[in-house]
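Hi F.,

I've been meaning to write this up properly since the lab meeting, where we talked about keeping a consistent format for the predictions we share between groups. The idea is simple: the sequence comes first, exactly as it goes in, then the structure tokens exactly as they come out, then a line or two of notes. No screenshots and no reformatting. I'm using this chain as the first example so we have something concrete to point to.
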Amino acid sequence: MQRSLLLCLFGFLFLSCEYFNSHEERVAAIVDAEMELIHFDEVDKFPYFEECQETVSKEKDFECFATNMSLRLAEPLSDLNYKVSEDLDEIVYVDLLVNEQGFVELLEIKDNPRVNQLIPDLKAEVSQRLRQLTMRGELTVHPALKRDIPVRVKVRLPLILKTT
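Output, unedited:
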């Protein structure tokens, strides 16, 4: 009888340990489980301009954002004319950051050895013009959202260089 009572007591202690966990430990376990479900490399809603109406798909939202961003960037860069000694058909990537307030910042213009050789001052000129756009606030957008919280997002756009 004592042996069965002792076994029941030990069984009760082992089974009821869950009830002795603190509230913080239970909350931490729930948060950890939730964090595993969140994809931090994806956003729920891309940054958008006023011209972009909400669509059904994220792809269409991004397409609208990329198109409008490209149009805004193309205007100040359209009058750049360079004379080069060889035909040129290259892409230079421009990395931008859209912060939590919707301000666009120039992060980097990726190096392209051939373009650097043929047009050494292109990077500096493009940087200056894009910084002027951002200083005037002409690239302000609605920020990207993750679970309805504004987040910053890095965007890479191609700058296509072709000789005519």
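Notes:
The longest strand covers residues 89-98.
The two ends are 99 Å apart (CA to CA).

If this format works for you, I'll send the rest the same way.

G.
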